[in-house]
Amino acid sequence: LPRYDYGSNGVLGYYHAQLTDIVQYPDARTELFHAFRELGNIILFCMLIEQALSQEEVTDLLHAAPFQNILPRPYCAEGEKPETKTKRLEAKYAALQIVQNVDKYGTAKQSQLSREGDLLTRERLCCGLSLFSVVLRRLRA
């Protein structure tokens, strides 16, 4: 029978029987299992750091959204046009648009830096970088 037909207890028993010699080996209990514990703790630590960084990044992006003209879709009651509410929100937040204001009032260097910062913030949103996947790939190699 295939292993999945035995269920969880059957598969656990199969692997337990196969690994009995390794588990009974005295050096494995002290050194090898300790190394496995350390490796597991490293993997869990990297995963938790990745989750915390992702939450922090989402918070940063939410705070930066009005400054980049990323506005939420407005709620419209019956009979209201979403376009008018959107235009009203854009007019309300127009003074917060960093890139346009720096282009208008700043130097060329400041303008270039504000555009680069804006691009970097937008790229962070769509890039989806994952530190945890890099760590796992390096562990596999």
Shape category: elongated
Mean pLDDT, rounded to whole units? 84
Give the proportion of residues in helices: over 70%
Distance between the termini: 34 Å
Order of helices and strands: HHHHHHH
**Beta-strand level of the residues, as a percent range?**
under 5%
| Number of helical regions | 7
Pfam family, one: FragX_IP
GO biological process, one term: regulation of actin filament polymerization
GO molecular function: small GTPase binding
InterPro entries: Cytoplasmic_FMR1-int
Give the helices and strands, then pairings.
Blueprint: H1 7-18, H2 20-24, H3 26-64, H4 82-92, H5 98-105, H6 108-127, H7 131-140
What does this structure look like?
With 141 residues, the protein is mainly alpha-helical. The chain has one domain. 74% of the residues lie in helices and 0% in strands. Helix 3 packs across helix 6.
